[in-house]
Specification:
The structure is a homotetramer.
Chain A lengths: L2 E6 L4 H10 L5 E8 L8 H4 L10 H4 L4 E2 L11 E4 L3 H13 L3 E4 L15 H4 L5 H9 L4 E4 L3 H17 L1 E10 L11 H4 L10 H12 L2 E2 L4 E2 L4 E8 L6 E9 L5 H9 L14 E3 L8 H4 L2 H4 L2 E9 L2 E8 L3 H17 L4
Keywords (chains A, B, C, D): NADP, Oxidoreductase
Protein name (chains A, B, C, D): Aspartate-semialdehyde dehydrogenase
Family (chains A, B, C, D): Belongs to the aspartate-semialdehyde dehydrogenase family.
Chain lengths: 345, 345, 345, 345
């Protein structure tokens, strides 16, 4: 028996990746697609400008797109994947939760809310039980679960590995982000060819807050955020997919390069359907990871790390993840798999 | 009366920029061009694959390229601009100095030597008098003067402005560097299209050491390097020209964004021929500076800064400079102008 | 005395280039700017997202943008430069002509109309007098003059040179067009990085019809279109500016490569203010012209040609022009200069 | 039983693709790797700078690279895949044939030789028996078989389909070629970012001659080349993989767009291991095929076509193939499979 799933914002860049991942998924079945009013009522292949390099699945092409309201989604749908602009998500997601749907959302609204689990299953799966707190407080039959921002997801697993091994104090990160992170039309070609843009609205604050919540401790009632100071600077560069990040961190205990590699390599993956075989791929070559060469490892669900060096009192390293797979659609699907494994579905 | 100047490594990417700058220069006159053995004896326009977007000057096109030895350079040449691979520079530049030539060099060898002035004229012009120490120690009639690495030049002027205003403690920098920094063939298209490379050999160490020497104090006998800790991470991205950098710095005194802008804007330029009108252009828009839009300001000799924010105990900002103009050829020419102004020519 | 000029569609990509060209222009003075309803009433620098690599002129930054109607343009404006979407141009331009304005338009509507002059001044300046026919027929005090599409302008001057020398029979052209030709947001980065798109809506037909009208004869009453067959295929590639084209043509008389070069080189320019010094720059190097290296020749107003080869019964060659300067804004300004020289202003 | 195969030029861009294809191949087994003198004696993963986005197979990584001479290749190797610079191939390939090896070569030397089969199996498999003529004339135990140039392979299958259906008279083609076609270091980033190069040395002549040989008739003794006139213009653009081409052709019989599509769609594939399921994928959308979206169809072995339009007396269309898979390594492997099927191995 598969779980019947709906996709909110199915025509967007992340929505298309959700379709790519869910169509062959053994546990989930695409049962509803929604989009903005303009698209509602159209066949999916007419509503969406499909632009990823695998063909649009036939079964999905013929589905009719609905409006993004609980009324337009069949009752036998149990799980909702949401990839909406945050202003829309803010309004619509609670309505779905109230109507009894479990929502695994990639939208940025509500990520910092006290009673909303923000999870990367391999890092903080236990936070998922914040759902109990949420249901108590909000009186929902459904639930709202969030995955973090793509740039946050990229660095948190290696940071979690280092935190566990050495303790972290201060984190500084600079990102080189791919254009797909802004959605299909988010970055025009005239803006980015032969160029880089040292600003992505709101992204720095997201990295600074989300990472501290993800690395925090959940005691059954609330999440105590991690105490590390985080400073981020975010840049857009002319790559299609794959966010590359330079990270520096002060560690509480002394750490050698070899110990750091070992901490990352031995950091466990899960056996959820979409989990990578190896969570963190650590490269020995100093010029890796690179977006084009390394973003697709383990179906785009691995984190790549490299360039690990000791600094005075800490470490610096580079990391990379596929931003629309590991960093968005895949993150939501993985959260869905966690919800299923933990009995919420 | 113009100073007769020779260019070592005249066919390379920086060599071509030197020609572009020197051909119309009112104080200098191109009197000799040298290149590797393969090119020696050829007309310049046959030896060089000209690839910048201004035409090759006619007078230069017809010059004959010589070998890179003092013997192949006429005696009435006084000033040598050198843009050689460091291994070649290491061997050849001292020979020129010994033969009595003043060498303004962009090559990375000898930059950290105690008796070699490493100068950005607007920042530490006084270091030029290290030439006296050098001549004492080495017994040269000539002299060797260096400009720093392109990635160092980009961040040092804004850092110098902040250091003067607030005192600097700890500097962390991430670079997004253009392909021209690696020379014409340094980065293949297959390496960099839809990609970024988080490693530039030796570059991080150059930024960490050169910036401390540049920000240091010269007491007439030696340079005391600045005590700040510097951590750098260097990346190559698919831009043609213009290095963009994210910088964080802890400051000794408290600093507001407005004070930081004021410190940068009021940091003085010089009235050397190639000096920019305004040394540091500070942008109010959070998404500037950008390489393609801002690298050419003041003939590619300005530094652009923006995105200034307060952090806990410090500041973060972005900066940008044209790497082959301000960061290489223009830096050497400016040092030549300083040498002339200070009476060394 | 300068002519007071208005710009319709002043915030778009071509509108910005018009401002760049007109602000320092000795014969014209920017007296009005219009844009869509959203922008009307705003300061220009608030309404426009300025994105070319020269700063926005101060005098223009402070101007107030009006709506695109004759009522919103001061009466003492004599000349209107129009760069509107064709559907808007179709509606609005006749209203301006009726209200007495002379309109030099880059919009694609009405280019094929019998009584509308379509001119490249160096090629068919005499067609401008079609204005008399137009005024007779339409009863306008003003007049409507068009420049051709950017891809057409690129190939027509060299074709005109060859037509005059050898007579042309059949023309086949493939284009490699820059993204700026689609306007600022016309091509997203996700569409074009590591990609090419073999389709530009309507462009092939524009090249096929406009070139025959431009190469046609005007007898004072009507233009007889050139009889050559024209086949075009249009592609978008990841370049910012500069359309490159491969052209084959059968010639009536035999033509050698040398004769073809001579025909192109000796094809006269005009002495209008914006005319290039040399209309067609012919390269000897087989790998030129190239967009990045050659688009800016003669302030972006020259046509570059190269790769000329004999074929069986004809010639093949490559040509290039800056699409938003020579191919759009500069083309409209040049037509404005022609209108002034011919006494229409 | 698998055929033991050697790869000449195994460290190059096409050599790496050969390894990618042969390592999992059910019929062939990689038994020898050769490269230039510099690499001979090294482990493969030390000799090669691996740069495709699948990892280097472990079994291959550890192999020792030999020199490119028959002496350095084990005797039990039967089949040689060659991807050498043509000047090296010209010297070395005959030595291998003389030593009894069957050579399936991607190198451009000898492609036009009367007694050398030049084959695209789906198009002219029967030409393979030219081997008999070759052995008679040259007295070889081995044999030399060539696949055409990548740009030729892209257009010949659709042309063959049209030729069969309507007869072809005159062919004009413009190419937009990816940088990988020039090898790993063939195109520098400074040459091609924000640029296009309208010249690829020798490529136009290759397309003009090879296509006529491929479309020719083999009568058991010699190949009569096709009589069509072919005019080509070749351009390099900033794409990584996938050559896109605009083709015009005059047809002997009248042809509608629908008939042309049908001719292409029904043109048969083979059931060789590497054959695509469908040889020519015909797109209905006018803006397809596009390199990034369509180059990987059927494991990079399909030809994509689209934009088919009627012209006066003929047709125009666009086509695309993955240049290092279908156009190089895959083409050689397919020829190897044909040699096996026809009993030459």
């Amino acid at each position: 028996m598969t779980v019947r799933a709906g996709i909110l914002g199915a025509t967007g860049a992340v929505g298309q990746r959700l379709i790519q991942l869910l169509e062959p998924h053994p546990e989930f079945e695409i049962a509803a697609l929604t989009a903005s009013e303009d698209s509602a009522g159209k066949r999916y292949d007419e509503a969406a400008k499909w632009r990823i390099d695998v063909p649009i699945p036939d079964s999905v092409a013929e589905m009719t797109v609905g409006a993004t309201t609980p009324e337009d989604v069949p009752d036998d749908v149990d799980l909702i994947f949401s990839s909406l602009p945050s202003s829309v998500g803010e309004e619509v997601e609670p309505a779905f939760c109230e109507a009894g749907y479990i929502v695994s959302s990639n939208s940025s609204n509500a990520r910092a809310d006290d009673d909303v689990p923000l999870t990367i299953p391999e890092v903080n799966a236990d936070h998922i039980d914040l759902i109990e707190v949420q249901r108590d407080e909000r009186g929902w039959d459904g639930a709202l679960v969030k995955n973090p921002n793509c740039s946050t997801i990229t660095m948190v697993p290696p940071l979690a590995a280092l935190d566990e091994a050495f303790g972290l104090d201060r984190i500084t990160v600079s990102t080189l982000q791919a254009v797909s992170g802004a959605g299909y039309s988010g970055v025009t070609s005239m803006e980015i060819i032969d160029n880089a843009i040292p600003h992505i609205g709101g992204e720095e604050r997201k990295m600074e807050t989300e990472s501290r919540k993800l690395l925090g401790e959940f005691d059954g009632a609330e999440v105590s955020w991690h105490g590390a100071r985080v400073d981020a600077s975010c840049n857009r560069i002319p790559t299609l997919d794959g966010h590359l990040e330079n990270v520096w961190t002060d560690t509480e205990a002394d750490a050698t390069v070899e110990e750091a590699k070992e901490a990352m390599r031995s950091y466990p993956t899960l056996d959820l359907h979409s989990s990578p075989e190896q969570l963190i791929h650590v490269f020995e070559q100093p010029d890796r990871p690179q977006p084009r060469l390394d973003r697709d490892a383990d179906n785009g669900m691995a984190i790549a790390a490299g360039g690990i060096q000791e600094t005075d009192g800490g470490l610096q390293f580079n990391c990379l993840a596929h931003n629309t797979l590991r960093g968005a659609a895949g993150a939501s699907v993985l959260n869905g798999e966690l919800l299923l494994e933990r009995g919420y579905l």
